[in-house]
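Review this today:
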Amino acid sequence: MAGPFNQLPENRVPTTTYLQRVYHLLFEHFGPQHWWPADTPFEMAIGAILTQNTAWTNVEKAIGNLRRADALQVAALHDLPPDELQRLIRPAGFFRQKSERLQLFTAHLIDNHQGDIRRLLAQPLAIARDELLKLKGVGPETADSILLYAGGQPSFVIDAYTRRLFGRLDRLPGDGGYDDLRRMFMESLPASAAMFNEYHALIVILCKEYCRKRRPLCGNCPLSVHCPAGSMNR
C-alpha cells in the first residue's frame, strides 16, 4: 500500500502524518460511524456520565427508563426524588453515585446557565472544559465526551481503547497518560469536531472488532501491517 507509512520507518513518521494516515486507513475500512446516539445535547451529556464503568447497552436501558419517565430534561431530572432516579438508572450500575452526580450536574446548569446546557457548551473550549472538570464525578474523559458529542467542540476523547491501540502501535507520547495522549491529537490534527468525533468512533470499533484486549484478531486488522504487536500475531 502506498503512502507515508511506506516512505519512512515507522518511528520516523511525523506524528501529524501518522495520525492522519491511521484515520484514513480506519475510515476506508469501516466507513462513517455516525456517533453519538442521542436526541439532544442534554441526553448526550447524561449518557456520558452514565457510561462510566459500564457498557453502552446498559446506558441505553437507563436512558430508556428516563425517557419513559419524562425525565430527560434538566428540571425534571433535577426534581426527581433520589430514590426514584436511582431506580431509573439502576441498569447503568453505580446508581447511587451516578444519581448524585446527575443531580449535581443539573443543579449546576440551573444555578449557572439558566438550566440550558447549550449555554455552558457555547463558551470557549478551555473555559467550558475547566468548568466541567470542577464538577464532582466529571473526569477528563467524561468532560471531553460532553464537549465533543454534546457541544460540537473539538476536544479529543481519550479512552481505554485509544490507549490500547496506540500502545500496541508503539506511539504513546510521554508517560502515556490522558493529558499527553490528548495533547498529541489536539496539537497534531486540525481542530475539527467532526473529525475528532469520527476518529474516536473508528478507534472504538477497531478495538471491539480486531484490537481486542485479549486475543486480538490481527490478521484482518487494517493497521496490522504497520503495528509492532500485529506483526508478532500474524
User: Anything to note?
Assistant: The CA atoms of residues 123 and 160 lie 28 Å apart. The first helix runs from residue 4 to 7. The chain has a mean pLDDT of 92.
